[in-house]
Design a protein that fits this description.
35% of the residues lie in helices and 22% in strands. The chain has helices at residues 17-33, 47-59, 77-85, 102-110, 116-119, 153-162, 198-208, 233-250; strands at residues 5-11, 37-43, 65-69, 73-74, 90-92, 125-127, 138-144, 148-152, 167-168, 177-178, 184-185, 195-196, 213-216, 222-224, 228-229.
């Protein structure tokens, strides 16, 4: 039986044109494939609150999964469909942050590397090392951003029960919401990530509650910023292995390499 989905788009300044086009193509593809779906856009200057209230709205529906798509994501309709078809409870894709690492630029320029544009940005994910992907290109992650992330109903239901201190009221959709997407503060002094921003807050709480996170490396998302930050995670992993030796020869350490 095909899984149903609520596509949730949080935004603070509107949905960019490229994302609107991606969403339209996704809806057409879902309709063609017989997927039962809905689309909800929440606009507010607080993105974490938008995500929390979209999750609250999701729990009031009968959809099987919640698919977060940020308002500046570029994707193919098959990308959303692949996440929906996957049987994992939390699975998403990585994308480039809208930043450029000067160390990565230095390494790529020194190596005269032709893939400079792909290699100079940080990724919005932290994968379990060493990265081991299955035949579908899916691997386990330590933390993931919510820009392109599918979450099944059981996960949201479980976490809202485990974090009663995060409830607040009222919600724009009626009743109270659970602020699962706020900044994360670790209670474990041994944790190297004692403070994590709101984009990773959900995944850290899910990990603490025993849920596993998965990343599909086959998806090539674009991230709209001053220009389109294109991404190719599988190619990036191969390039990273290739550049490791070159970095060591130049005296540039691990921190100078593109991270995934």
């Amino acid at each position: 039986m095909q899984e149903s989905v609520l596509v949730a788009v949080p935004t603070y300044d509107g949905v960019c044109p490229e994302t609107t086009l991606s969403l339209m193509r996704m809806c057409h593809h879902f309709t063609k494939e017989g997927v039962r779906y809905g689309v909800e856009i929440a606009s507010d200057n607080n993105l974490a609150r938008n995500r929390a209230e979209l999750a609250h709205l999701f729990l009031k529906t009968k959809y099987d999964s919640l698919l977060f798509i940020d308002a500046d994501m570029l994707f193919a309709p098959e990308d959303a469909f692949k996440l929906l078809a996957d049987d994992r409870d939390i699975v998403g894709a990585t994308y480039r942050k809208k930043t450029i690492s000067q160390l990565d630029v230095a390494l790529c320029v020194a190596a005269n590397h032709p893939e400079l544009a792909l290699l100079v940005g940080e990724q919005a994910t932290d994968l379990v090392q060493p990265v081991v992907a299955d035949e579908d290109g899916i691997c386990e992650a330590n933390r993931m951003a919510t820009g392109f992330l599918k979450i099944r109903r059981a996960v949201i239901g479980d976490l809202t029960g485990k974090y009663p201190e995060l409830y607040y009221n009222p919600s724009r959709y009626g009743g109270g919401s659970c602020a699962l997407f706020e900044n994360y503060f670790s209670k474990n002094p041994a944790c190297p990530l004692c403070y994590v921003g709101d984009d990773f807050g959900f995944s850290m709480r899910a990990k603490d509650a025993g849920w596993k996170l998965y990343c599909d490396l086959s998806l090539k998302l674009g991230h709209r910023g001053p220009y389109i930050f294109d991404n190719d995670p599988e190619k990036l992993l191969n390039l990273r292995a290739q550049l490791q030796g070159e970095a060591e020869e130049m005296g540039l350490g691990e921190t100078a390499l593109p991270r995934l």
